[in-house]
Automatic annotation (TrEMBL), chain A:
Origin species: Microvirga aerophila
Name of the coding gene: soxB
GO molecular function (one): oxidoreductase activity
PANTHER family in alphabetical order: FAD-DEPENDENT OXIDOREDUCTASE DOMAIN-CONTAINING PROTEIN 1 (PTHR13847:SF287), SARCOSINE DEHYDROGENASE-RELATED (PTHR13847)
Full protein name: Sarcosine oxidase subunit beta
FAD dependent oxidoreductase domain: residues covered: 11-355
Entry keyword set: Oxidoreductase
Classification of source organism: Bacteria, Pseudomonadati, Pseudomonadota, Alphaproteobacteria, Hyphomicrobiales
UniProtKB/TrEMBL annotation, chain B:
Membrane-spanning segments: none
Protein's organism: Microvirga aerophila
Keyword match Lyase: no
Molecular function terms from GO: oxidoreductase activity
Domain spans labelled FAD/NAD(P)-binding: 14-324
The name this protein goes by in its record: FAD/NAD(P)-binding oxidoreductase
Keyword check for Oxidoreductase: yes
Length: 375, 486
């Protein structure tokens, strides 16, 4: 049982070194637990490393808001947590209404959030919208802003969590693939292509591959493997600070301090998860470009220099699977973040570590459990 | 040959699509058309020829001896292309090649994004041959980003296309047969080149001599001797140069160099650098072809079979893009690749294909003779591939230095793709097409592991930038329109 996993039996095995696996490992280590992380590629290889880097509380499903709020507190002192600024900047995120009907629905949304006690989303009129996003098309009547939101550099962030976790004693086994998992007495035996390892607790943070581990455990879930596409432009003159998103048409839009502009919105390419590759769908990227063309005329001549996609797992209700296994003691799930899990990483890791160490958490996570699929 | 000037005139699908109209591409196109395949040849330049025969139908350099007999041999290839039924799309870029949507009848079918005159379109091809040639190996020395310092290949392009010759005191530096050829061409065209700094490592001779017998029987021998003898006339050649830097504030003013134990500094207005060419694998990389590290040529080379098909079905690479072999070899490999594609399309039986290819392969064997000697002899020195000085720039677009890269390796960053996220190297307008080799070798050197373990940048489309406006205006493909109608 020594070999690639290093010496000593761990308390926790984390499967998957994305932002979630790395964060959970780090927070477990802070609680004094011994952790081994098993990753089939390298940390941040898939969606954690290549996503849009949005750090967003804006426009989230109510079930996720507590986890997201907890995470946001950690983001604003991320350097204390991982000794790295993770490229985090906080210039807000703005959800733009494209017409009056949409603006009315935004008004209703903010009122509902307020009644639930959440105040991070703020309705703004056309004037404030223009002040925050001067280049936006004249026709947009207003929007919602979440002022503490922002963006970070995803790969840098995931690596920072990994590095800090390692400093705190977590062992990372990269290039090692989990092949199965079985109960053995009161603990779990995780088999890999580099041998087997045992621990009392196992966290399934395997992203787009997590359904396989869940199925092995008798908890099959309807996870869809998706490949959200992104593209980035060459430098253009600086014209926008906050991240801008749309709802009816798909768009997320961010300009970096160096002038390059990241364009996304969740258009999907094809994911071939067994080959670790994605295939872009240019017809859909053209739609994505058309939205930018309409909303930001200033961008029409910008050169697209790169387009890519990451491999991600999506649940049918677009909510993550987060919490204890429904049937097994010592098994925890943390996957299916459905293309909006990056911001949740720091907080979700802290809550997961709390669950593992104490059996409970004060952060409401009801509505996110695996039982909604397997019960 | 039919020439196309706008995207609307392109067909929805071609049997064979060839990218690049150098020797390999021109011959592949003629060979494809000769088999009755609907063949499209796409090229970025306004006229065929590629780099080696660049401007062959348009060059203002009329005196035949300036560019030399080897250059004018390209005329035959252009004639064969012009006489064929291939469709030729000049001034056209290919910005994406990927598998066509699932559900089409032939599995190797590709979707190709093309752009002409500011308008983009997606078309399909049943087989693709990339004949994207070679590019000059990066030559990162202190001061190489100063105005006045350029690649010798760049100077040659200016000469072939516009008859331009660099002004003032010109110093050429580097290694390899092309350096001598370019120098001879520029001098014949009237450039004042007073000094050549030859960086070929003297110890390479010992290793190369083992491969000399083939070289002595090859056509390279005669050409090489002629160039060497010519170079000795009226020009100082400094051999065994082990360090070079370009100096100046806003413009190169002097070049400093070391040979043996001596340091010298010479005033200069133009410094031309060249240390050989490497396969241009940018397209192959973005398409996802498996690449191998070639320790002799110190570069990535795509894996190909006997017909130059890569690990990606339906996607072949002909010419220098599949390994440096020179113009003559490229043309022959273009023919073999097109015969292979014809067979995969069911146009030629295996027997027919093999018979037609047999004499071409024999020629190829002859044309490749002596190549190994040149590879070993002109293998560039480490000092000119992996900059020692920490402040030497490696990634020109994002101004990332060698020192910064080494520091970041020490943080635990193990490969070029992770490095991008930390330093933005390879993320500027050129997307790592120019610094890729240097970054791979530098990381490998700093980690003390072979380049294969480090890997290269994973390049992503668009292979050439397209504007947001072009992409937004992309016409709907018939398949997409049908999908909506259903």
């Amino acid at each position: 049982m020594s070999s690639v996993f290093g010496g000593g039996a761990p308390d926790v095995i984390v499967i998957g070194a994305g932002i979630h696996g790395c964060s959970t490992a780090l927070h477990c280590a802070k609680r004094g637990l011994k952790v081994v992380v098993i990753e089939k590629d390298h940390a941040g290889r898939h969606s954690s490393g290549v996503n849009a880097g949005g750090v967003r509380q804006l426009a989230r499903h109510v079930a996720e808001i507590p986890l997201s709020a907890y995470s946001m507190e950690l983001w604003h002192r991320i350097e204390d947590l991982v000794d790295d600024d993770c490229g985090f900047t906080s210039d807000g995120q703005v959800l733009v209404a494209e017409d009056e009907a949409e603006y009315d629905s935004f008004r209703a949304r903010v009122a509902e959030l307020n009644s639930l006690g959440f105040s991070h989303e703020e309705l703004i009129d056309a004037r404030e919208l223009r002040r925050l996003v001067p280049a936006v098309a004249e026709s947009c009547p207003g929007g919602i802003v979440s002022r503490r939101d922002g963006a970070a550099l995803p790969f840098k962030t995931t690596q920072a969590f990994r590095r800090k976790a390692e400093i705190l004693g977590v062992r990372f086994c990269e290039g090692v693939r989990v092949t199965g998992i079985q109960a053995e007495g009161s603990s779990w035996m995780v088999s890999t292509d580099a041998g087997a390892i045992r621990a009392a607790n196992v966290v399934n943070a395997a992203g787009a591959w997590a359904d396989r581990t869940a199925a092995d455990l008798g908890e099959p879930v309807p996870l869809e493997v998706i490949a959200p596409m992104l593209m980035i432009t060459a430098r253009v003159e600086h014209f926008i600070k906050p991240v801008v998103i749309l709802r009816s048409r798909k768009l997320s839009f961010k300009q970096f301090s160096n002038g390059t502009v990241l364009i996304g919105g969740g258009y999907l390419g094809r994911a071939l998860r067994d080959q670790n590759i994605t295939v872009l769908d240019w017809a859909k990227l053209a739609e994505n470009a058309k939205t930018v063309w309409d909303l930001f005329p200033i961008m029409r001549g910008a050169a697209i220099v790169r387009a890519w996609a990451g491999i991600e797992g999506r649940m049918p209700d677009d909510l993550p699977v987060f919490g204890k296994s429904r049937i097994h003691k010592g098994i925890f799930h943390q996957f299916g973040f459905s293309a909006h899990g990056f911001q949740l990483g720091p907080g979700a890791g802290a809550v997961m570590a709390e669950l593992i160490a104490t059996g409970n958490t004060n952060t409401p996570i009801n509505g996110l459990g695996i039982e909604r699929f397997t019960a | 040959m039919k020439t196309i000037k706008d995207v609307a005139s392109l067909s929805e699908c071609y049997d064979l699509l060839i990218i690049g109209a150098g020797p390999a591409g021109m011959v592949a196109a003629a060979t494809g058309a000769e088999q009755g395949l609907s063949t499209l040849l796409i090229d970025e330049n306004p006229a065929p020829g590629g780099q080696i025969y660049r401007g062959i139908t348009t060059t203002p350099v009329a005196a035949k001896e300036t560019l030399g007999a080897d250059y004018w041999r390209g005329t035959d290839l252009v004639h064969a292309l012009t006489a064929s039924d291939a469709v030729y799309a000049p001034e056209t870029t290919v910005w994406s090649v990927g598998p066509a949507a699932e559900g089409t009848s032939d599995p190797g079918r590709m979707e190709v994004g093309v752009s002409v005159g500011g308008a983009a379109r997606l078309i399909q091809a049943r087989q693709v041959i990339a004949a994207t040639g070679a590019l000059e190996r990066p030559f990162p020395i202190p001061g190489w980003t100063l105005p006045g310092v350029m690649t010798a290949g760049g100077a040659q392009i200016a000469l072939k296309t516009s008859g331009l010759v660099p002004d003032g005191r010109v110093v050429v530096a580097g290694s390899g047969p092309l350096l001598y050829l370019l120098t001879a061409q520029l001098r014949a065209a009237g450039a004042t080149i007073s000094v050549m700094l030859d960086t070929t490592p003297l110890e390479n001779w010992g290793r190369a001599i083992r491969h000399a017998s083939d070289f002595l029987r090859s056509p390279y021998l005669g050409k090489g001797l002629k160039l060497l003898l010519g170079a000795e006339r009226g020009m100082r050649i400094v051999r065994g140069v082990t360090a070079i830097s370009a100096n100046g504030d806003s413009q190169v003013k002097s070049v400093r160099f070391r040979h043996g134990s001596k340091e010298e500094e010479l005033p200069c207005d133009v410094l031309l650098l060249h240390q050989g060419v490497v396969p241009n694998i940018n397209l192959a990389n973005a398409v996802g072809c498996a690449l191998d590290w070639d320790e002799d040529q110190l570069t990535w080379v795509p894996q190909t079979d006997d017909w130059y098909e890569t690990s990606v079905k339906g996607f072949a690479i002909a010419g220098d893009g599949a390994g440096i072999g020179g113009a003559e070899s490229a043309a022959l490999r273009g023919r073999i690749a097109a015969l292979g594609a014809g067979h995969r399309l069911g146009r030629l039986s295996a027997n027919d294909r093999d018979q037609r290819a047999a004499p071409v392969r024999a020629e190829l064997m002859r044309a490749s003779r002596g190549r190994r000697f040149l590879d070993v002899l002109y293998r560039p020195a480490k000092a000119f591939r992996i900059p020692k000085a920490d402040d030497t720039i490696v990634c020109r677009c994002e101004e990332v230095t060698a020192g910064k890269l080494r520091e970041t390796v020490a943080l635990g960053v193990t490969g070029p793709n992770q490095m991008k996220s930390f330093l933005r190297c390879g993320m500027g307008p050129c997307q790592g097409r120019l610094c890729g080799l240097t970054v791979t070798e530098l990381i490998a050197d700093a980690r003390g592991v072979p380049p294969t373990e480090v890997g290269g940048y994973r390049l992503r489309p668009p292979i050439k930038p397209i504007t947001l406006g072009e992409l937004a205006a992309l016409p709907k493909t018939p398949a997409a329109i049908k999908a909506v109608e259903r």
